Amino acid sequence: MKYYSLNHNTPKVSFSEAVVRGLAPDKGLYFPESITPLDSEFIKNIERYSNEEIAFQAIRQFVGDEIAEQELRRIVAETINFDFPLVEVEKDVYSLELFHGPTLAFKDVGARFMARCLGAFSKFEQKKVTVLVATSGDTGGAVANGFLGVKGVDVVILYPSGKVSDIQEKQLTTLGQNISALEVKGTFDDCQRMVKTAFLDEEVNQVINLTSANSINVARWLPQMFYYFFAYKELKNKSKKVVFSVPSGNYGNICAGMVAAKLGLPIHHFVASTNANKVVPEYLQTGTYEPRESVATISNAMDVGDPSNFVRIQEIYGKQIENLKAHLTGYSFTDEQTRAVIKETKDQINYLLDPHGAVAYLGLKKELDLKSDFQGVFLETAHPCKFLDVMESITGEKVLIPEELASVMCLKKNSLRIDNQYEELKGFLTKKTQQIVV
Ligand SMILES: *Cc1c(COP(=O)(O)O)cnc(C)c1O
């Protein structure tokens, strides 16, 4: 499989090159050259197959022959070795719970898959790959955990000192092995600026293979399509049309769902549900795409003003807004609406939504009002305990912290404090490289 840049100003590359590079040299996102539908018999009989087999069949063409079948099967199995429950919360309304992975974040799947792909490639490479990420909270934990112990890959995570929650900080700083946490005396924006400078620094890139681990990377983006297959497999009534509502920030997750639909999975409609950051819902209404600064909300993983995967969505639907609108509706909800629905569902159906899942639930209900002959699935992307303060202020009750998270709180933090100056990061990266060369 080859990948082309959506800016069309650079040669096509292989899967491994697309993964190692992250972004194309012309700054475009990579996109697969073709998407070939799966055998319709396979989808018709999906209940007969294990999640591992389904995921393998779904991802296989996008990897091509660069990873041998047996190894790819192993990678897929390790990526998804936890539960993906589909819970019917009301008649014809399902919650797909994507928070049962090691860091209780849906980003676990993408991070685990990408890490293992890099590990597989590095067997043939002389140089190690260093994954460099700035995090404001959740992404860092999923990436750190996903890459833990993967041979040939080092991870360097920058986070703003004092600005991530205690749980999040522990998730980043207690792993050790190939994971280094740099605690930056500054803001998230400082961290992000330092990381971007490093990617553009030729001196650094000559000695060290740097890559990023956000959803622009095809190996983090594509495996998210597994969720849609797993949900469909679990639906009892497959003759009823299905709509998926996805809480969207950078639009990587929903865009992976659209790839699943291209592969032949019978998804009849998508809802992009979001908070006050509503560039995409507005685009669908007005036809004008106007990126802007993000605004802060209680569903903060979706506080994105210029979603990076939107260009991929446009590519999938041939850059035709009418075509896109036939498959996608966008809704935006306020924090007040989000708080109200969390309280309401807790009281009335005894189901605890996190702020992101709550936004997705709102979007789904709104769409089902218009589509009474449909059933719907909304994606629950994080465990409510990751937003303790918000949740407890809404429900007035303590949220139980699952054991996996509680145990990390007892471990000792291990981070290196640095100033918010690029030279400090550069010093760390180049010194590390010398250690590797020696
Ligand atoms: C990252 C994230 C999202 C948004 O996903 P995108 O793929 O960026 O649209 C939604 N919910 C949670 C909890 C997240 O961490």
From TrEMBL:
<feature type="domain" description="Tryptophan synthase beta chain-like PALP">
    <location>
        <begin position="96"/>
        <end position="372"/>
    </location>
</feature>
<dbReference type="InterPro" id="IPR037158">
    <property type="entry name" value="Thr_synth_N_sf"/>
</dbReference>
<dbReference type="GO" id="GO:0030170">
    <property type="term" value="F:pyridoxal phosphate binding"/>
</dbReference>
<protein>
    <recommendedName>
        <fullName>Threonine synthase</fullName>
        <ecNumber>4.2.3.1</ecNumber>
    </recommendedName>
</protein>
<dbReference type="InterPro" id="IPR001926">
    <property type="entry name" value="TrpB-like_PALP"/>
</dbReference>
<feature type="domain" description="Threonine synthase N-terminal">
    <location>
        <begin position="2"/>
        <end position="79"/>
    </location>
</feature>
<dbReference type="Pfam" id="PF14821">
    <property type="entry name" value="Thr_synth_N"/>
</dbReference>
<dbReference type="InterPro" id="IPR051166">
    <property type="entry name" value="Threonine_Synthase"/>
</dbReference>
<keyword id="KW-0028">Amino-acid biosynthesis</keyword>
<dbReference type="InterPro" id="IPR004450">
    <property type="entry name" value="Thr_synthase-like"/>
</dbReference>
<keyword id="KW-0663">Pyridoxal phosphate</keyword>
<dbReference type="InterPro" id="IPR029144">
    <property type="entry name" value="Thr_synth_N"/>
</dbReference>
<dbReference type="InterPro" id="IPR036052">
    <property type="entry name" value="TrpB-like_PALP_sf"/>
</dbReference>
<keyword id="KW-0791">Threonine biosynthesis</keyword>
<keyword id="KW-0456">Lyase</keyword>
<comment type="similarity">
    <text>Belongs to the threonine synthase family.</text>
</comment>
<dbReference type="Pfam" id="PF00291">
    <property type="entry name" value="PALP"/>
</dbReference>
<feature type="modified residue" description="N6-(pyridoxal phosphate)lysine">
    <location>
        <position position="107"/>
    </location>
</feature>
<dbReference type="GO" id="GO:0004795">
    <property type="term" value="F:threonine synthase activity"/>
</dbReference>
<dbReference type="GO" id="GO:0009088">
    <property type="term" value="P:threonine biosynthetic process"/>
</dbReference>
<comment type="pathway">
    <text>Amino-acid biosynthesis; L-threonine biosynthesis; L-threonine from L-aspartate: step 5/5.</text>
</comment>
<dbReference type="InterPro" id="IPR000634">
    <property type="entry name" value="Ser/Thr_deHydtase_PyrdxlP-BS"/>
</dbReference>
